[in-house]
Design brief:
Chain lengths: 888, 114
Amino acid sequence: MKLVRASFMRLRSLFHKEQLDRELDSELASHLDMHIEDNLRTGMTPEAARRDALLKLGGVEQIKEIYRGQRGLPMIETALQDLRFGFRMLRRSPGFSVLAILCLTLGIGANAAVFSWTEGILFRPYPAVIHQERLLALTGTARGESGPTAISWPDFLDLQRSSTLFDAFIVTKIMGTTLSVGDRAERTIGSIVSANYFDAIGVHPILGRGFEPGEDSGRNAHPVTVISYQLWQGRFKGDPEIVGKTQRLNGVLHTIVGVAPEGFYGTFVGWAMQFWVPASMEEIFEAGGYKLEDRGARWIEAYVRLKPGVTLQQAQQEISAVAQRLETDYPATNRGRGIKLWPLWQTPFNNAGTLLPTLEIMLAVAVFVLLIACANVGNLLLVRSIARRHEMTVRLAIGASRGRLVKQLVTEGLILAAFGAAGGLLVAHWCRHALVLLLPARGGVAMHLPGEIDWRVLALSAGVCLIATLLLGLVPVMQTRNLDLAGALKAESAGVVGGGGRAWVRSGLVVMQVSLSFVLLVGAGLLLQSLQRIRTTSPGFSTHEVLDTTVNLVSAGYDAQRARNFQDELLDRVKALPGVESAAFARMTPLSYGSFSSTPIAVDGYQPPPEEQPIVQYNEVGPDYFVTMGIPLVSGREFTRADDEKAALVAIVNETMAAQYWRRRNPIGERVQVKGRWVQVVGVAKDSKYQSVRETPTPFFYVPLRQNFAPGARLHIRTPLSPETMAAALVREVHALDGNLALFEVITLQEQVDRSTSPQLVAVTLVGVLGGLALLLAAVGLYGVMSYAVSQSTRELGLRMALGATPSHLLRLVMSRGLALTAAGIVGGAAVALASTRLLGYLLYKVSPRDPLAFGSALVVMTIASLAACFLPAWRATRIDPARALRD
Amino acid sequence: MGDKKDVWQGTLALMVLKTLETLGPLHGYGIARRIEQASGDLLSVNYGTLYPALLKLEQEGFISFEWGVSDNNRKAKYYKLTRAGRKQLEKEAREWEQTTAILARFLSSKEQAS
């Protein structure tokens, strides 16, 4: 209490300094007066009385100083003094200040931006959802398969029933549909969710309700939907009476029962959900029929929330135990199947998993850029501290302690870093949505990948800022350590190019900068090359001259028979269009988001290893598919119109499947069991890429679309015409058949491939941008050091000139000094790069981490940059007037 | 100053408080003189150190002040004891007496030392 009161009074005194000083003055004056009068009364002479009184009081200024120390908070007061002084110093050299703050803004901004992306995408991806820190992703695993799998609805219910360590189990499965409101049809994305979804994540609809218990059971029993705030505002114009109205979704009328709050985008990293339907409506939105009672149909993605205090390990143990029981209880469907929990930031089924490696690398790169920026500012400070040596020496000479000087210098560093941090946060704020710009919209729906600037990001940025301050403050502090009072008070002695101990620190900093930017250049080069490899690797089908589009028949309410007829008629009309070589329908476009059908298979004469159920993915394709796609057939025949519902069931397998299940035998004419029905193999197709360009050859097969009908099939057209030209013709043909149908965007397959490789593009772009930034900063640093060296050694250079050195000689002298620094930096950088580029691992595709081309081009770029940076100072050296240089 | 003792650390505050208790509100000069006189002129107060000490007591809430006019018509700062100061005085006086009593006993008991 006493302490609080005292500190409060001290704090208050900071603001009334002058008044309090005046009061003390008058108190001391009256003290003296009283003492003198007393002395006079005892008979002293006026002089003696005054002298005695002053003597007894002691040094007035000293008392005042002690008094002030007791009165206020000296620490704060000197800090304020330092701040004021620091600001004055920065204002006095605006060029330096602006450059330093700009460097720091870039450095801290890069960090803050990456922090905010990491926070918004990996750690707190769903701002409206409660207790995200306890949320985990839930997937299945299968023996013999490396990646995670989806989960079946019955398994999910069993997990939920048998586990005790969890607060909540929620299902959320992303799906798309066409939404027609009025005469506008648009692609939208929604989620199939469990009925507890909104309650479990603590999101309360602002209008109407969420889903009620039981609404996720019963085949197609509950056609209800909750729509997003954006959809409500955008498509429904904020209609306050929206609850209770109906909306056709994938052909089925749904009643809108609620509107989600603003700022809630669902629980899928990368996309903003527009509507939610309960799992009971799954069949309407998902391929493959009714799956709620089929333990073998794995389609859902799920999250769980741990009870407070439960660790991931404990939870995984419990879940694994349940999974094991399911394995014994249902061997037919669950043999070799497990369940795995993932931290949110590793969620494998959304873009968190895709962007994780990119963001990891970005963090490292951002730290590099910060280091380079700090080195630059350090160099600037160093140069300035030399200019300020006189000031420092004077302050030391009149009694300032070294600690006091250090405090002053650190305060100046802090001011710079604080400005840099403020600018950096601004940069991060601007860059919040930058990631989305790099990822193209898919199917007309823009991605949603916001950065999140919350207190954690602010705290981390503040931490970065503090580290920067310490780094910055330390440089000039090292200078004060070897200040020599006598020497420094004399005139500054003239330097020589590259001479002197201080130059060593500066050169060291430049070498470090060059090293770090070299590493970044190598990294950017490697990523660029692998992107190129990815984009030029043949996916196994033609990417040019093949267009892809679709017409949504399901949401228009077509039944299977009508859809079949429509497809046939449209195909005939499209094939008749000028410029069309061939056309075919297929359920899935390869490399698109979405999943192929998959089935457990059995093959005559193939004995699978025990405990393993071979599962293979397949596509449902129409006649002429292989011709249209440009996938060569190795043997056998293509599907024809004759392969319809009435004909014998047939399939075409790819080479990998043929090799794996028929070994050396020719599979043509053999049988394979698909979804419980025996099918005859009629052809073998070349391998191609199905889900990712980076995948290794996988078994895959095709069945005729007619024998496995899907109304939502995609239309592939082989034509040399551009997508725009084709789109216009297609719209005419579609409308000729049915004026109410909407055509989706028409894109080339190359565009499809590019979209599927966008994470690589993001990585390359970001590393490229930051690498360029680093290069620029390093060049500025080199330029600064070389300019300073030249300006400090004017006399030496003049002397050399007077003694007969030619301008080209001097040019070489300065340039060689700069290039020596660069060379040292490149050697260091190459060593670091050789040791560290394999960390790029996942992002590299068919490129060695030690690829000579990447190292070579980094070398060339770095050398050119440093030549450019050194040229101006070197040229200035040749312009020195020897007569003047020697006279001054 | 010769044989006079300087006021030693820590006791000045106690003396100030005691002086204010005995004499009521008083200015700094008066307090200093009073301490010297009360000690039978054995102590010499360094007047300069008195003012920071007064400030400290004020910050701790043991004394308060108001501006007044001295006997010879001068504006002066008059310090007076607060309620907390009175308590503090009692407490410190008691502690001081205990300390001196212990020390006295310790110094007088020769047999224990040998």
